[in-house]
Each structure stands twice: as C-alpha cells, then as structure tokens.
Amino acid sequence: MTFEQEQRHVYYDTDLKIEAYHLTGIVQPFPNHFHDYYVIGFVEGGRRHLWCRDREYDLSAGDLVLFNPRDSHRCSPRNGEILDYRAVNIPADIMKSAAHEVTGQPYTPFFTQNVVYQSDITSALNDLYTGIVEISSRFEKEEAFFLLLEQIFREYSSPFEQSSTAEPDNKIKAVCAYMEDHFSDNISLDDLTALAGLSKSYFLLLFTKQVGVSPYRYLQSIRIERAKKLLEQGIPPIDTAAMTGFSDQSHFSRFFKDFIGLTPRQYQKIFQTDKHSKKEASTNEHEH
C-alpha cells in the first residue's frame, strides 16, 4: 500500500470536549513523544511494535492501548504492515471531571496497563467513537463515554497518587519546568546542563532514563502541545510556529506531522467547522 492511501480522520466533539481519531493505511513510524492528555485507542488492523514506559509490545487487531498524560511512547510497523487504528483523546481536566462522576469522589486516574491484548473494551470504545462521528445525541454520547470509563477504571486504573511511577529527581524536575516556561526561547543544551550542574553526556543519559524521552524530544513535545492550543484558537500556522520556538514554518510543519499525523493547517480545520459538520483531514491533502 502506498503513502497516498494513508488517511487520517479527526473529529472534535463539543459536547464531550474530546477528540476522536481514525487512522487507516498508516505506514509511518511515530517517534518517541508524549501527550498532555489521556489516550484510549485500539488496533483495527495491521501489526505494530510499541515501546512505552520501558516496555515493548507487539500489537495486533483487537488490542487496547491506554496512555496516561506524559507516557512516553513510540511505534513502528511490523514487517511493513499497515495500521488501522481508532482512538479518543481526553484532556486531563475532562478526564478528572468524568472520573469524579463515575466514582463519586475526587479521582485522578492512572492507567496501570498500557496495552490490553484482545480486550472486550474495544467494543465500548467503538460505540463512543461511532457516536461522535455520526453526531448522535448528547445523551447517547455521554452514556457511551461514562460506560467506557467505568469499565476501564474498574479493571485498569488506580488513583494517580498511588501509581508506582518513579518521579524525576529535583535537578531534572527543574530542567523540565524551565523548558515548559521557556519553550518559545532558543534553548541550548548548554543552558540545560548549566541549570542541572551536570556534564552533557551524563545529563542526557540521566534525563532520558528518568523522563522517558530525550531533552530535545521533551522540548519538542511541549512545543507541539502548546502549538495545538494556539491552532485551536485560530492563530495562523506561521504565527504559531514563531510563538512556539520553531525556527521556521517548514520545520514546525515537519515536527507537527511527525507527532500528530496531520499538518498544522489540517489540524486547525477541525476547529473551524461547526459541531454538526464532519471534521476530517487526509494526508492526501498536501498542505504545509
């Protein structure tokens, strides 16, 4: 299958305030990165090799994928097979509010498994995805949303405070905070090693081990997440690139496409149509 047959459809639901993704015919590997939102997805077809939180998985049709915010992950095709994949992206504040609804108490969920092989939950996820795409009633979508979350919370979630994930040490935390506050600046490796008080080589090894991605990949992930927010607000891609620290629009578009699977302009179009319209984009549209 050729690159031109790749399709990426993205829908934004203004009732639930979540995104639904449908990727078909994908041959592209995705680099190591993370998101600021939760991802619940499943493989419809094809096989992928996934690396997430220092573990490796071989994915195939019927497998459920669960990512917490900041879970670093990457994937590549197995034996050149194409990927068909559906997912919903849930902002952290929406998830926390929904978790309170489901559990009846303040609750920030932490997915305890990143992959559930051959999971029956994919059916509930598909019901939610279909409700969003077919513009079902708010009642129907909310029911599908809460039923899906209730099942995941019951089987594959614990309170975030009880998660066993090791936190970075204070030096690395300070570097992360610096990049999040100064993402639009021209940050250098010298800046970060001076802040951490470490040699370049040791800093790179320590940061990558503790955070799960390299410092440069961390910075680019932060920039892409900030860029998404600006694009959603209608800021032109060329201005968004400058405001998020990218050297030029071409550089920005390349990184955005690698991380998100859409060009900045394609992503922005999702938020420029009314909520009763089909919102989709395809890689066959050669936009920058």
Determine the structural class based on helices, strands and strand pairing: alpha+beta
What is the straight-line distance between the termini? 24 Å
Number of strands: 12
Query: Which regions are unreliable across 5 or more consecutive residues at pLDDT < 50?
Result: 274-278
Under CATH, the topology of the largest domain can be stated as Jelly Rolls
The largest pleated sheet is described as: 6 strands, antiparallel
**Strand fraction band?**
15-25%
Order of helices and strands: EEEEEEEEEHEEHHEHHHHHHH
Number of domains: 2
Adjacency order of strands in the biggest sheet: 1-2-9-4-7-11
CATH superfamily of the largest domain: Jelly Rolls
Average of pLDDT: 89
Number of helices: 10
Q: Into which percent range does the helicity of residues fall?
A: 40-55%
The second-level CATH architecture of the largest domain is Sandwich
GO molecular function, one term: DNA-binding transcription factor activity
Keywords: DNA-binding, Transcription, Transcription regulation
Domain HTH araC/xylS-type: 173-270
InterPro entries: AraC-bd (IPR003313), AraC_XylS_family_regulators (IPR050204), Homeodomain-like_sf (IPR009057), HTH-like (IPR037923), HTH_AraC (IPR018060), RmlC-like_jellyroll (IPR014710)
